[in-house]
Amino acid sequence: MPLPIIPRGDIHDPVHFEQFSAEVPTFSQDFPLDAIGTPDVYVERQMYHGHDIRLPDGGEIEVWGFEDPDDDRNGLQFPSKPIRVAEGSLVHGRLKPRHGPHTIHWHGIEPMSSSDGVGKLSFEVEDTYVYQWLAAEAGTYFYHCHRNTTLHFEMGMYGALIIDPHPPAAETDLAAPYVTGGPGYVRRGDDLVRYDVERIWVADEMDPRWHELDKDSGIGDLPFDDPDDDPGLNIFQPEHFLITGVFHPLTRTDPRIVARAKVGQKLLLRIICAGYTYHRWTLPLDAEVIAMDGRTLGTTGRPGAHSPYSYPFVQPAGTPFELSSARRWDLLITPTEAGTFPVTVEMFDICSRPGDFRGSCETFIIVDPADGDADGDGDVDLDDFSTLKNHYGTPSGATRAQGDFDGDGDVDLDDFAILKQTFGT
Known about the structure:
There is one protein chain. This protein is mainly β. The chain is about 10% helix and about 35% strand. The chain has helices at about 15-20, 150-155, 380-390, 415-420; strands at about 25, 40-55, 60-65, 80-85, 90-95, 105, 125, 130-135, 140-145, 160-165, 185-190, 190-195, 195-205, 240-245, 245, 260, 265-275, 280, 285-290, 295, 315, 320-325, 330-335, 340-350, 355-370. Strand 2 and strand 3 (about 60-65) form a beta hairpin. The chain is globular.
């Protein structure tokens, strides 16, 4: 016997809703904060809509997202501003919707239903609401709206969510959470590894037709009485392809996307699939995969760890790997030679195998010689010392190849100190 449909106004508590309702209620007030704990971290997000971003051809396309009202300079971004917290933190996240009800789903965090932001399993937020969750395990996650999810996610209502491990006790210069871009620490199995450079590559694609739809398109009884009411959310034909909010071909040169490191440094890539195609990535350098979907590979019993039966592995240079919607990989690269190396991500239709090619993006990993490596052969040895010695005292106009390792135009004791520190690399 089917359960009765109870009007939304007659739903008085969550148990009543879960047992009897086929509708999604809205919630319009905060939980009393003293009832859910004192947070270590407090973040706030307000929904924005009607924000146009410029396309490479000069046109514009509308996006929606989450704005940080406490950041006057960088609070409104596309994708939404990353949230970074330290491992072990109790987090309160306040949502202030606009343009109708919304939610924030903390993808991969797995809190209780009332803080998970999946409207059909709890409620949607109409006025304001405080979510609570524990940053239990370091890794790459992301947050997004889970109302009319198919459309709202495509419109851009998502952002990276990073949980950083605390540094080793001997580290005095860095503290979690780390500044986006590096340096910082990341887990590799049971170990902590210091990285020098970080890039968050969020690949996405856009169908301009979807970006002209109303926020409630697709919500309603099926089948539609009038075919014109069907928004066609089963038809996805992307025309624009981007990485972390930058459209191809600008991804080739934008310094926010291009990764730049030195020989011997550690480059951390956090790659997120935020699209509705499947993404085939090809990296130009050997990369070690250290985490998938927010779970560290190769842990052996650390409290709270999820992956005791896996291990990090090498993804060889030039060997493609594929990510589908919401998948995340964390990879470490330690370059051994200088150069400019192309990175590609190809997007294929997800409804067929092999899928039809839809588009691609290209960017680069630029590897500069190591500090002290004057001749660019990848090591710091007596040849580099001889170069510095021959040009020592040059007052201006000197280059790296002549021993100007700090880039100030002269060759002096500061450059000798750099070579001394890196000698033997």
